[in-house]
Amino acid sequence: MNYLLLIDGEWVPAINKKSFKVTNPANGEVIGTVADGSADDAIKAIDAADRAFPVWAAKTAKERANILHKACVLMRERIDELARVLTLEQGKPLTEAKGEIMYAADFVEWYAEEAKRIYGEIIPASHPAKRLMVLRQPVGVVAAITPWNFPAAMITRKLAPALAAGCTMVIKPAEETPLTACKLMEIFIEAGVPAGVVNLVTGKDPQAIGQVLLSDPRVRKVTFTGSTEVGKLVMRQAADTVKKISLELGGHAPFIIFEDADIDTAAEQLLASKFRNAGQTCICTNRIYVHEQIADDFVEVFAKKVQQLKVGDGLSGEVDIGPLINEQALEKVNKHVQDAIAKGAKLVTGGKRIGGHLYYEPTVLCHVTDEMLIQQEETFGPVAPIQTFEEEKEVIQKANHTPYGLAAYLFTKDLARAFRVAEALEYGIVGVNDGLPSAAQAPFGGMKESGIGREGGKAGIEEYLELKYISVGGII
């Protein structure tokens, strides 16, 4: 697999003629090359998107919707091919990769439908000779900076609403996982997206490319998914040209299990939330709070389930957990585990690297306390730290005691408690007896330092629209 840059409808080499290798985290093997784009290439992509914008924005909603529908159909038809590429460069098990492709296609389908529901308003005027109206119009050129952990879904979650709204886009995918992005671009071109409407700039220097995207006044919106640290830099740089921004940033999700919860159900849902994509998800459970009355029973049940998880190459068949994305990620996971053990945590299962590649044993820790790093930082790995609690008020305070506010989970059979606690948790997403709450038709995003704006659902397309108020006088 060898790819160039997609600019103005053509696959072109980087201006510097350079390229870089993409490797499989499961074994370190080279699986392809992509063009190593630079700031100059980013400017060319913005030029193309800027030229294409008026024509694309002028198309009818139905025309844009038809192209998105075709792209969705092609994605689902080619799920096996797309999933295999995704697993090769990202590492997640093939079944998870297929699930991501279906999830990514869901956004394309949803926003194909929403394109035809961008409504305006007529406002009662305060004078009989006036008519007041509000139009919703596309923002303009959008820059999307996407992460490596969901290289398909994080693109379509941004691209689909932008195209539906009438915007054009320049995409900078993560340098670890550019091949999935290239494959998706092939599909959107085949579906009929005109030249310049979607542009892809891959590159090993995201700072240089990002600087151009953030400083060029023709880019009217930036949408970014990644760490809170980088998100703050994006926010600062976007301020110079007063761009609209959407930021989906880090999380530190609490998972609360009350004494009346069904232990087996909670354990199954925690397993799915915590170990999906080897724990490398932004809404992944990071802090587990179990009521002291059921803590011993829960740990026993949960640990047995964790011990049955199979670790290995995502393409090898019955594998539950693939590799971490790189050596730095693995070192952070191990650091958190060793710090917790040194400060008194008990290792229930796991706790070490597997072999010479980027695999880490699915790990369970109990007797965890607040001063441990794992309770203070997002681990982004396959480690489940368990802490006990006594009172509802206490656990709500612990859950909210963080600068993050992306996702939270709670398990209980008490309906009143479910609503009471869900409303008290300072998070943009709350799963009640549900460890996998994401859906294309629902708004996804965080509070506090976990981000700004929402992706998915009706709210997702609003991020790509401007309101224009028109007052017409002289009617009488």
TrEMBL record:
Domain Aldehyde dehydrogenase: residue ranges: 11-470
Query: Which Gene Ontology terms cover its molecular function?
Result: succinate-semialdehyde dehydrogenase (NAD+) activity
Q: Which Pfam families match?
A: Aldedh
Under the heading InterPro entries, the entry gives: Ald_DH/histidinol_DH, Ald_DH_C, Ald_DH_CS_CYS, Ald_DH_N, Aldehyde_DH_dom, Aldehyde_DH_NAD(P), Aldehyde_DH_Superfamily, Succ_semiAld_DH
Instruction: List the active site.
Output: E248, C282
Entry superkingdom: Bacteria
Q: Which UniProt keywords are given for this protein, alphabetically ordered?
A: Oxidoreductase
Q: What PROSITE patterns has UniProt attached to this entry?
A: ALDEHYDE_DEHYDR_CYS
Q: Is Oxidoreductase among the key words of this record?
A: yes
GO annotation, biological process: aldehyde metabolic process; gamma-aminobutyric acid catabolic process
Asked if the Swiss-Prot or TrEMBL record annotates the protein with the keyword Oxidoreductase, the reply is yes
Q: Which residues cross the membrane?
A: none
The UniProt family comment states:
Belongs to the aldehyde dehydrogenase family.
The protein, known as: Aldehyde dehydrogenase
